[in-house]
Amino acid sequence: MGDSAEKHGLQDLTPDGVKAIVDIVFVHGLHGNKETTWTATTKDGKVLWPRDLLPQDIKEARILTWGYDSHITHFWTKTSLGNVDTHARNLCADLSSLREYTDTTDRPIIFVAHSLGGIVCANTLVLSENSAEPYANEIASHIRGIVFLGTPHEGSSKTKWAKVGQQFVSLFKTVNKEHIQILEQNSIKLGAIGGAFETELRKRRESKEQRSKIEIVCFFEEKESPFGIIVTEDSAHLGSYETMSIAADHRGMAKFTSRADPGYTRVLGFLRRWVDSLMEEVAKAAKPESAVTNNKAWFNGPNYGGFMVGQSDAPQNLYNQYYGQGGPGLGNHGPGGLKPGN
């Protein structure tokens, strides 16, 4: 992926023949790459786990990885605080274009985000939810889960975000005082995103609509990078959502070597549960609307012939005719609904 254009935008890692009911989208962080961020090196070669491992365990997902210019001086700039907003809007637009082109706009979305890529995903939810554009609203309404790998969550605290910035610049050998100033100045922006994201999550939790709920899990690194822990457990923690660890440093926590890798199995457990839940939703939506409820047809009219039509005390032969094994049933009509994989 030498050409910079190849590093940006969406890349489909899904094996041929998959009938997907969900989109799982991987988003890298600062100085990351849509492939190398997720690639481990082993004695047998390289393992890009979204491509080489995940499809074996989640066969119902279209797996996408998204890239963007994540160099620290392009992620934020002194003169403009808008780049993190631009990344979020671009992610939203790229997803929308693909989903419209492939006629999959009703498909749920799960993000897997490493490091400050999690801030891009959080901002994507906030901006798309509050956008005047219907395509953006559609993306917001279908975000159903986010796995945060080493993403700091400091709410609206400018002071805490400034400290986070200093920890992140220690990761990169090319940083200088200008880079530190950029991150410290943009702590205001990060605080605004963090506060807005928490507000949006609170709204979703309080909603009575099941499809509004967003599943969240946060992971932090157990091992130190050369300059220490980059995202601590406290920093990774987000409200009442689960916080767990991965036995790697900040960069290594996004790279898994095999299906037996403890970090992989831990992340997979959450993804598998979320996808199973979404499959149940799809199955329920696929059931035809019917006048029959619990295998009985209810009629609130007058009592003719000594029984109420549809009541359980109806003559047994009539009941068996309509509701027994192999019987035709009543009210078996209506839209067929959705089918998994369409």
From TrEMBL:
The keyword Protein transport applies. Residues 24-186 form the GPI inositol-deacylase PGAP1-like alpha/beta domain. One of its GO terms (cellular component) is endoplasmic reticulum membrane. Keywords: Endoplasmic reticulum, Hydrolase, Membrane, Mitochondrion, Protein transport, Transport. InterPro entries: AB_hydrolase_fold, PGAP1-ab_dom-like, SERAC1. It is an enzyme of class 3 (hydrolase). Pfam families: PGAP1. The keyword Mitochondrion applies. It comes from the Eukaryota. GO terms for molecular function: hydrolase activity, acting on ester bonds. GO terms for biological process: protein transport. Its EC number is 3.1.-.-. It is found in: Endoplasmic reticulum membrane; Membrane; Mitochondrion. Belongs to the GPI inositol-deacylase family. Involved in inositol deacylation of GPI-anchored proteins which plays important roles in the quality control and ER-associated degradation of GPI-anchored proteins. This is GPI inositol-deacylase.
